[in-house]
Amino acid sequence: MDAAEFRRRGREMVDYVADYLENIEQRPVYPDVEPGYLRSLIPTEAPLEPDNYDDIIKDVERIIMPGVTHWQSPYFFAYFPAASSYPAMLADMLCGAIGCIGFSWAASPACTELETVMLDWLGKMLKLPEHFIAGTHGHGGGVIQSTASEATLMSLLAARCKAVRRVQETNPERLEAEVLSKLVAYSSEQAHSSVERASLIGGVMMRKVPTDNTYAVGGGMLKKMLEEDRAAGLIPFYFCATLGTTSSCAFDHITELGPICNEENMWMHIDAAYAGSAFICPEFRPLLNGIEFADSFNFNPHKWLLINFDCSTMWVKKRQDIIGAFKVEPLYLKHENQESGRHWQIPLGRRFRSLKMWFVFRLYGIEGLQAHIRKQVVLAKEFESLVRADKRFEICAEVVMGLVCFRLKGSNELNQLLLKRITESRTIHLVPCQLSGLFVLRFAVCSRVTDSGHVQHSSIFRSAAMLSSPVSSNHCAVDPCENNLTQNPNVYERKECRMSYFTFSICNFFAIDFDVSLTFIVLFVLQSFRCEPILSVYAASMSSSPTWVGLL
Predict the structure, then answer these.
(1) What is the pLDDT of residues 314-346, one digit of tens each?
(2) Would the N or C end of the chain have less CB density within 10 A of its end CB?
(3) Which residues pair with 141 in a beta bridge?
(4) pLDDT digits (tens, 9 = 90+) for 64-113
(5) What's the per-residue H, E or C state across 7-54?
(6) Residue 213: Cβ-neighbour burial (10 angstroms; 0-12, 13-18, 19+)
(7) Cβ atoms within 10 A of the Cβ of 205, count?
(8) Collapsing DSSP states into helix, strand and coil, what is residue 511?
């Protein structure tokens, strides 16, 4: 491909991408494929001769797209957002064209310096303490990591190195291996799994601190655990606080935890992977109060600041704590400015990721980014209202930002079946979590283009209608997880019901009532195509063989 063809194909690709995103809601958000589907669709070996570009694009639609989970779909409500915007895509394209590997200032001065400036821009947007801003008289600064997992690992390894050095300064006879065996790190029981993984990689113990009834860690419980461990001869050295937990978007009480960590000479890291973006809005900034006690802080602009993956920003109070833990100087990397812009991350090579930040910040402005975040919070509040208005459901955690945790009143099995039905419908995508032993569904507003209509027309309530529906005294409803009719606040129990009168809500617009003469329901399958559902009931009668009854 020469420059002329690249120009032509580039325009075609821009059109393809724009068409894909403009029409993405026409595609099922969750793919209908089985593991291993792709291997049989592509050759077993790479082509010896070049393929035709047009054939490759056809194969994108034929082979790749059927297996894609469409994270940018307005019906994608799983996990947390994977940010995307046209300015970030253009910057990513330029990054690929420049093709530099910014492992040091000399390797690419612009790559190194723009990253430092962008982290200062973002730090000021968050109103971080001055010691985190590189372009001041402080000793800290910021760096882009690939993910929050890497940022957490970096902070733990730096804290470990600092703790070992501190112990050996006062007890030089103690070997590093002995000190390491005594080190203890702490995190919330609701912390992301990457925190525990960091402790495994770092070779240190990790203790999980119990949370309160809001799923947040308070100072009292941490202090109690520290006293127990010090009495046992252990050395507490690190605490990872979470602002916006993955399960429920809970916020640890860092104004309580920070002073304890400082008094105990422990490193406090704050992981705000999802929620951190919202702190650019003045109404959410108080949730970051206590940041002044932290030794390091990270969040992911690639979740909520319209910057494509990967872009995880991290700040440290004292950059020497990071640099000192990872400094290695092979001859081939030496240059006269070698102390600038190195030893801040685990990989040596790094992409020109700050270009994405520069493009997005300039083309959206702070106000545009704030508007995006506020819109998604409003949509989450709207969904919360819909859930609270339906007596079959309950809200399981406070809705602070763009995440709603909810469930059907009833058993975990019932909620597992609800999620299964939703997933099988392929019209929206959700994932679960566990809170206080309960199986809970998470509804996270993710797509940049999600609006009120998408929230209103999600198929959650339709899928739930087949499981348990508010009914009057002469109505029965089926709990398919039991093999009978059960009673709970919304469902009446009768072991046999020859004349069952069912009510199913469809699209929140109307209801279908029908009589069925049967002993029990064997199977109920709902296939939901937006607001045109097809209901099928597989009924087993005492006097006849199983028959299908289809209702349009």
Answers:
(1) 999 988 888 866 655 444 445 455 444 556 766
(2) C
(3) 316
(4) 999 999 999 999 999 999 999 999 999 999 999 998 887 778 778 888 88
(5) HHHHHHHHHHHHHHHHCHHHCCCCCCCCCCCCHHHCCCCCCCCCCCHH
(6) exposed
(7) 17
(8) strand
